[in-house]
Amino acid sequence: MDNFSKRKYVLAAIFILVALAFTVRLFRLQVQDNDYKQSATRNVLRRVITYPARGLVYDRHGELLVYNKASYDLLVTPRELTAFDTTSFCQILDIEKEELIANLQKAKKYSTYKPSVIIKQLSPENYAVLQEKIFRFPGFFVQARTLREYPQKTAAHVLGYVGEVDRSKIENDPYYAQGDYIGVTGLENSYEEALRGQKGVSFQLVDVHNRVKGSYREGRSDTVAILGKNLTSTLDAELQAYTEYLMQNKKGSVVAIEPATGEVLAFLSAPTYDPSLLVGRARGANYQQLAEDTLKPIFNRAIRAAYPPGSTFKLINGLIALQENTINEQTRFSCSGTVSRPIRCTHSHYSPIALRDAIRESCNPFFWNTYSSIIRKYPRADQGYQVWRNHLLSFGLGQRLGTELNNELAGNIPEDSYYNYYYGENRWNALTIRSMAIGQGELLITPFQLANLAATIANRGFYYTPHLVKSIWSDRDEQEELKFERHETTIDPSHFDVVIDGMQAVVEESNVRYSSKLDSIIICGKTGTVQNPHGSDHSVFIAFAPKENPQIAISVYVENGVWGSRYAAPIASLIIEKYLQGQIAPRRIAVEERMRDANLLNPNQPK
Amino acid sequence: MARRNNIWANLDWVSIILYLVLVFMGWINIYAAVYNEEHSSILDMTQRYGKQLIWIVAALVIGFTLILVDSKFYVFSAYGFYAITILLLIAVLLFGTQVKGSTSWFQVGGIAIQPAEFVKFTTALALAKYLSSYNFKMHRFKSLVIIGVILALPVVLIFMQNDTGSALVIGVFLLVLFREGLSGFVLFLTFIVAIIFILTLVLSPLHTIFTLTAGALIFHYIMQQRLSETMKALVIYASLSALFLFGGPIFEINVSEVKLVLASTILSSVIFAIYSLRKGVHNLLIVLGLYLGLVFLTFSVDYVFNNVLQAHQQSRINELLGIESDPLGVGYNVNQSKIAIGSGGFSGKGFLNGTQTKFDFVPEQSTDFIFCTVGEEWGFIGTTTVIGLFLFLLLRLLYLAERQRSTFSRVYGYSVACIIFFHLSINVGMTIGLAPVIGIPLPFFSYGGSSLWSFTILLFIFLRLDASRAEKLSH
Question: Are the beta carbons of B421 and A18 separated by less than 8 Å?
């Protein structure tokens, strides 16, 4: 009666096959394929970043150099957008409608449900207005960030600036993400890790409409943002400002160091710029403008420009000769003035002359003889040269001093192999490289190294790595003092006295005294003139004061300043006076005004 | 009283326990899918899980009541029930409320009733009644017409409500008819049609026709066993289609390639038919007829797809077949559903820990996509358990159906199994990307009174019939 009962097997087979197909498919979806698990996590987890405020920077007396002001980024979640009044929106925010539309398109392209920044760094005024009306614009919200603010508007080259992190940094350092800020130059860069603090991350669960539904694992994976650490800089804000005041309308650099510690008191590359130009939305445009400026305000001359040291270098040659015992304090060399050979003298003075007065007179023939005596002490010129060079290296010349600022130039003290290559082995002698006797020739020294030389002489034979940060604040009260290395020179301390006497004579007996001698403080200094084929010579002066227990050592470069005594020395003396006395003596106000008003931006100045 | 006791003893408790387990699991998963911390009690009547409990209790009462009814009543009133639901379908077209584009709901007070859900069991009853009628022969024209009418009436009415999913369910009665003696050829043809449907959409009609031609030629060779004859046919088809395809553009006949191929196919078939007739090879004509039929089918598929189906249906099919991929648009549901199930892993994220379903990434997570919650929170273990339980129930129903003495009970039993099977395959299939997104609920699992009640009624009538299988119900 039922002929088709066997067909039940066909049906059962269909049922079983479909169930089997489902099982196989489910196995592949659920067990084999891991992509779906990640997709699900991506779906619901939002990393909400809390940005800590960057650390502040103080000067050595606790004066604020850098702090933060709040800034507001406007973000949008395209998915939550509804039609809104674009005209009034643009009015509130002061932007063009086209810009808004273009940015919205970009945001949509990035993601419809993840927020992206529409406008960076709203002005506080725009933000205030927007805050009242933002409820009318669903999908938009504001995120607070911080921007740098500079109450003193000084020390731009030291402080550096903060910018958005670039792609290669993001790829190499997992800490950074697109849109994060990072110190690009200066202390902002070298103390980035201390200053930035630690971003906090909280994981939030969101639903399909991007509404926050709670925290992930009750916040167990969240981290709290850690504030950036504050820095106490070695700079003296007042002195720094004064330096910039004096150096206006001039090119050059000033570096002042506390000899006993290596702490940099003032650090200027002139012309400088207002650090607040490189903050916020205008940074790009302002940077462009600064970069295109023919005076190169961004260029850090103090560590990036290397000049021949000129006559200031004679001090070292004197010291090395004393150490090598090829001269002593009484050794006299004769000088025939402008007809001296191989190097003529530029001053007229009595002859023969000994070291102390030779420094005062900056006598080229004396130092030629001094220099050649060192080189000729050894059988071969290259041996003598090596000995001489090693003494130089012990002063930190020809190498990076290792300050915190990056891009420091090493300068140049050529190796003997350079001359072997250039002239041929044994084909050169002291005479061949005579210009180094007076700080010219292949020698290249940065203003920063020259300031360190002044500090080393002030210390009578040692220096601490010059640095710009005293301490990092671990806590509000506890400050971590930074330690820096002490370097000994190869010169015995006893040899310094005569040189220092000579430096005192420069300031008190030569024509430098008219502009640079102080009434109650002994300044020891040395002028220099750097030959400049492109215009007037550069004016150089290094000094320290007071003579006993020196508090400040300084190098001043004034490009196109013609003579060391004309600008560099008076400016150095003013800075020293300001630092040690707190004010400029009334009788020197005229000097101060003359220095301040001098405009040396034209490379050709009258002799 | 003895008889009453007899019924309880004769009830198939295995099926009832399976039913209870599935309903309970469904309720738990609905709770997880729409879990709301402000209303964390599973008994909270303002939430879907609370309401579902009401539907469950009501369903149990319905089931209990159905068992109390004399089994002869179902046989007796089969056509009556059918007529009532057909009238309801007409009424809902006229007075129903529109929900999501479908006019398939009656709003009675706070409760919405969907007549299409109930038409399944009444159609099953009507079909069972007709197939068990005295002297019924399947392959009589009159029988086929009546069966056609019984099935087509609800299909057409439900289609008119714009509820494609429920209409397609009726198609599953083909399996029941197959069991009752409908030629396997019909099933085979349905299968071929489905294949051609997919081929046409995936490959394009042109490719499908060439595939069919190749298939027919192979068939020809198998039947003739003479290579030279097959080669002749190949030459006729190849040269003619080449002539039409390249000749068309040369003579600047502005007709699409597909139509050119169609013309060449018809022409070469006619030539080949005349040739075969003169040779006296008549059985080749069957192959030829079948071949031409399928070629026409290809065109009609192309036509139906582009001109009859609605845009959203087209894109759902396209998405399934991988022709279009649009994970944020049409494919969003399936994509999110696959993410939900896939992210469950082997053992799942744990009860109430599913993020995909709880945070609304999966749409309709308590109704059509309830299987996602199972997959996400209970993992591979959970999904295979559910499929295992369903398979067990289906095979159990087949077994029960086969042990019936009356044709009525057997046909009805098969109907129950096949309807549940269809719902299961389409519903689970769509959540894992094996079937197009057709909005039909997962039996016993999905939220909703109408669906749960209709499946309860469907199942319990059969269990009641089975309990009195010893009695003579009809011829």
Answer: yes
Does a cis peptide bond (omega within 30 degrees of 0) precede residue B327?
Answer: no
Q: What is the chain A residue with the closest CA to B378?
A: A30
d(CA B29, CA B16): 20
Q: Is residue A508 packed enough to be buried (19+ CB in 10 Å), middle (13-18) or exposed (0-12)? A: middle
Q: Are A599 and A250 in contact (CB under 8 A)?
A: yes
Structure confidence by residue, pLDDT tens digits, B402-434: 999 899 999 999 999 999 999 999 999 988 888
Residue B105 has pLDDT above 90, yes or no: no
pLDDT for the residue B102: 67
Question: Is the predicted pLDDT of residue B330 greater than 60, yes or no?
Answer: no
- By DSSP bridging, strand A212-215 and strand A140-149 are unpaired
Give the CA distances from residue B196 to residues B234, B268, B297, in Å, rounded to whole numbers and listed in that order. Answer: 22, 22, 8
Q: Which helix (H) or strand (E) holds A141?
A: strand A140-149
Q: Judge whether A370 and A321 are in contact, CB under 8 Å.
A: yes
The CA distances from residue A600 to A114, A366, A591, A596, in Å, are: 55, 32, 16, 11
| A208 chain-B contacts, CB cut-off 8 A | 359-361
Q: Which domains, ranges and CATH numbers included, belong to chain A?
A: 47-90+103-131+140-233 (3.90.1310.10), 237-597 (3.40.710.10)
pLDDT at B475 > cutoff 60: no
Report whether A496 contacts A457 (CB < 8 A): yes
Cβ–Cβ under 8 Å, residues A222 and A204: no
CA–CA separation, A124 and A71 (whole Å): 7
What ipTM was reported for this prediction? 0.84
- The structure tokens 């549940």 sit at B420
Instruction: Report the pLDDT value the prediction gives residue A266, as an integer from 0 to 100.
Output: 95
Rounded average pLDDT over A184-199 = 90
Q: What is the pLDDT of residues B198-233, one digit of tens each?
A: 777 766 777 778 778 888 788 778 777 777 878 888
Query: What amino acid occupies position A20?
Result: L
Inform me whether the C-beta atom of residue A18 falls under 8 Å from chain B C-beta atoms: yes
Alpha-carbon gap, residue B216 to B77, rounded angstroms:
49
Report chain A residues whose CB lies below 8 A from the CB of B360.
Answer: 207-209
How large a percentage of chain B has pLDDT more than 90?
30
- Residue A211: predicted pLDDT: 65
Could you tell me if B370 and B30 are in contact, meaning their C-beta atoms sit under 8 angstroms apart?
Answer: yes
Chain B residue closest to A11 (CA)?
Answer: B175
Rounded CA-CA distance B370/B414 in Å is 26
